[in-house]
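ping. complex inputs:
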Amino acid sequence: MIRDITIGQYYPVASPIHRLDARVKLAITFIYIVTLFFVDSFIGYFFVMLSLGAVIASSKVPLRFMLRGIKSIMVIIVFTMIINLFTTKGETLLLEIGFLRITWEGVAVALKMSIRLVFLIVGSSVLTLTTTPIHLTDGIESILKPFSKIGVPSHEIAMMMTIALRFIPTLLDETDKIMKAQQARGADFDTGTLKEKAQSLIPILVPLFISAFRRAEELATAMEARCYHGGENRTRMHVVSIGRRDFVAFAVTAVYVCIIFLLRHAAEIVPFWI
Amino acid sequence: MSITINHLTHIYNPGTAFEKKALDDVNLQIETGEFIGLIGHTGSGKSTLIQHLNGLILPTQGEILLDGENIHKDKMRLKEVRRRVGLAFQYPEYQLFEMTVYRDVAFGPTNMKLPADQIHENVISALQTVGLGEEVYEQSPFELSGGQKRRAAIAGVLAMNPEILILDEPTAGLDPKGRDEILDAIQNLHEKRKITVILVSHSMEDVARLAERIIVMHRGKVAMTGTPKEIFPRVEELEQMGLAAPQISYVFHQLQERGYDLPADVFTTEEAKEVLLQFLKQVKK
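pong. complex structure:
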């Protein structure tokens, strides 16, 4: 049952998006997220949708994987929509029930807000689905490197993230095993009062913590035995390099940003598009 | 209590990229009071099989019958099934969690809602069976040595008074003394209480010494089943499956090749000792 949980949702296929440098993908995702807040017209969102669609198509990841992230924030989307629907002040009245006023402007804002949220989630899914967690942390480390001059422990942060990601499946397996071992001794996790349910977690959590500490200690010993000493002068097994395709990606992003801003002003000139 | 396994198939993560057929149409009959040695290469389906026997995982297809009754027929009775079929996982000491050894061993029978005096009786008897003395009852299980921890954890399963005892590699990672203590305890239990034992092991020596019948798993199927004397002579087949015969039988093979007139079906060291002494006596004459 617990095996079904997947964390680190990387989808392994070969595509131009997968091959991009992780740092480039991180930077482009960041730019994408920032520019998303400058889009204010439906035509703008339509353009974002086309661009995102093109990226998803070239990433060769099935669309349902991309959209899976939306399910988990559905509550937030619906909540935002309702709040915006009722609180936006507008001129053109659509519906009035008691003290609740719904205006055309409210509908437009509510729609735009939820579209923005969906695009945010799907956009960042592209990053995590096409980049292995290891490349992602390597990329983060490399981006944070300049900040190590002002005391940001970039290598240590990246190493902690890598180790955490590495141990998620291990600890999930361990939890599964411990749960089964206790179930074999008649432990019951599903029935009983809330208090009983909370108590039934003790036989899982105590062994799980002990094993996590044991593993951490073993790993620390193993790292020390291999003379690990942190980031200083450390060479890498996979040297990342920015290539031609990364520049192409940046060029495409630059065009994208230009169009986003053009559309923003086009909306001012031709109000019909709003 | 007998176990019948009919057409048991188990597929992990069906319908995804990680789909894996762990068991493939397994049919087995295990009689009351048998001592079974279950062997197989890593990934052959042994662990998946034993987890089906007390209903920890649901079969994809097929059924498991205890005394002719399907264990999944009535969901409420699954707890009763788990009491009657005791399962000690590999490295069972990782399941210890209580403040004292006594309370940890009592976890199982307490969950089974046995009366208090019955629980006490079971716990003491289980701890005695595995050879843990009174001085450790009130100690924290985490203060024990590796071998003691293992025995305390196995006692936690025994305290439920199971009619079938399944042990997944109970001696993995123990020193020879710890190994002997555990194997002796298991053998005692089998002989005195006549309970059915299924021993999963990678040690052919242990299996040869204890098991009355051997089941060999290979790629999710039952590849062979029979007494040690039937299974171990099929060395070539075993080796193809990544297994082997007990080491002592290789010594006897070599001796035979060098022209000594010795029997081929010697699989335990004790037996080997007898046979060799007998042989030397004859040679002297």
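Confidence is low (pLDDT under 50) at residues 1-7 of chain A.
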